[in-house]
Design goal:
Layout (H helix, E strand, L loop, with lengths): L6 H21 L1 H12 L4 H30 L5 H19 L5 H24 L1 H4 L5 H15 L1 H12 L1 H4 L3 H26 L12 H16 L3 H30 L4 H28 L2 H20 L4 H29 L5 H11 L4 H15 L2 H6 L1 H17 L6
Helix pairs in contact: 1-7, 1-10, 2-3, 2-12, 3-4, 3-5, 3-11, 3-12, 3-16, 3-17, 4-5, 4-10, 5-16, 7-13, 7-15, 8-10, 8-13, 12-15, 12-16, 12-17, 12-19, 13-15, 14-15, 14-19
């Protein structure tokens, strides 16, 4: 039977279409433009990769600190939508401002701001899943979000790619073409956000109290103490810390890695566009498979596949190998993200979804500073970029062991 999204679910999915354009920008054009700025400043390839990695690490560390606090505050009735709106507006404005930066350090500072607000917006967005659908439909809706996000992001990306690669033919400078690209992504991101900003209603929430800020910290402290008692949630967060860390490290540094190896930039961009195209049907496929097979089994398969991808990246030297890597990542990227999101939604209390997704972000995007930092340090110490990237396989190995422990753990009685 064909799965159909209802109106609320479609509006929720649209935000994935909007924000995925920024993700695509960060993992493709943006590192190449930073390479352009860094090259003009005389930075070496190794230092270029390292500084980019450090910037990503700083951004994700800031999200790890602020995410749980904002997520907990957003669980209060009437707070989630306004805070969500602020993150989108500031993130989109920072994206436009990136196009005005002409010095590599200034570019990185603005990038950190844009990345932080983008990442924090996802905490609220993910926590809205419980409000827009039922538990029985969560795997499918979550998968549809990532699937349409992948294919939808290709629309502004192709436009940006045409402008950046055709700058000379159009008669504009590289800097101007990048400004137009950043503007297109920001506008797309904002416009796709409007339906959910207009119509979203918070169902699961905590009532407004006299001292909301103080109570936010008190609730967060209580949850941090209690999460240790909830063995299933605690082990999943610990597992997620490792395996999704590896996933986001690959996403954030794929283009920077290929550029540092000296691979053709046009080929890199087209390969990563292929990743999005492959990810679309594969994400939907994993959603349908979740109707027949348990989500935890499918997540295990995805983690194992990513471990193999990291090992493959260790030996990567040629353009065709990067294309192969792009296809493999596309096959499992949507599955591991979508099923992890819906699995976590099912094992946490719905009225504290923002709070728990804030904690999840520490172990996800917030923890990605570990992977990018490891890649940067190992690359600089050894002088070998492949060794830096190859170390990511260890994260997936630890993640799969901890995840299987989480699956076997009993659920907390509520």
């Amino acid at each position: 039977m064909r799965f159909r999204l209802n109106k609320k679910e479609k509006q929720w999915v649209l935000y994935d279409v909007g924000n995925s354009a920024f993700t695509m920008l960060v993992s493709t054009i943006m590192p190449i433009y930073f390479n352009y700025l860094a090259d003009h400043a005389g930075l070496s390839d190794v230092n270029y990769l390292a500084y980019w990695g450090y910037a990503v690490s700083i951004a994700t560390l800031l999200v790890a600190v602020s995410g749980p606090i904002l997520g907990t505050m957003a669980d209060t009735r009437g707070y989630k939508k306004p805070i969500f709106t602020v993150t989108i507006v500031v993130g989109a404005l920072a994206c436009v401002t990136l196009g005005l930066a002409r010095q590599w350090l200034l570019f990185l500072i603005i990038f950190v701001i844009a990345k932080v607000f983008y990442s924090v917006s996802l905490i609220f967005y993910d926590s809205m899943l419980a409000d827009v659908t039922t538990e029985e439909r969560m795997d499918q809706v979550s998968s549809q979000g990532f699937a349409w996000g992948y294919i939808g992001s290709c629309i502004p990306f192709v436009a940006c790619l045409g402008i950046v690669l055709g700058a000379d033919r159009i008669g504009i400078t590289m800097e101007m073409s990048m400004f137009i690209a950043f503007l297109i992504i920001a506008v797309w991101w904002f416009l796709m956000s409007l339906p959910i900003l207009k119509n979203y209603k918070q169902i699961y929430c905590i009532e407004v109290q006299k001292h909301p800020v103080r109570n936010t910290f008190l609730r967060l402290g209580k949850t941090l103490r209690n999460v240790k008692k909830e063995k299933k949630v605690f082990l999943f967060l610990f597992a997620f810390f490792f395996y999704i860390d590896g996933v986001y490290t690959i996403i954030d540094m794929a283009t920077a890695y290929g550029s540092a190896l000296g691979l053709d930039s046009t080929g890199l961009l087209l390969a990563l566009l292929l990743t999005q195209v492959v990810a679309f049907p594969c994400a939907i496929l994993f959603g349908r498979l979740a109707l027949k097979y348990r989500g935890e089994h499918l997540i295990t398969i995805c983690i194992a596949a990513y471990m193999g991808i990291a090992v493959f990246a260790f030996f990567l030297h040629a353009q065709w190998q990067f294309w192969t890597l792009a296809v493999l990542v596309g096959m499992f990227q949507g599955g591991i993200q979508a099923l992890s999101r819906s699995y976590f939604t099912k094992i946490i209390p719905s009225e504290q979804s923002g709070e728990y997704f804030g904690l999840l972000d520490i172990c996800g995007k917030g923890a990605a500073f570990m992977g990018t930092t490891i890649v940067s340090i190992v690359s600089q110490v050894t002088g070998d970029i492949n060794k830096g990237v190859g170390t990511i396989a260890i994260l997936f190995l630890v993640g799969i062991i901890l995840f299987r422990m989480a699956v076997r753990a009993p659920e907390a009685v509520r």
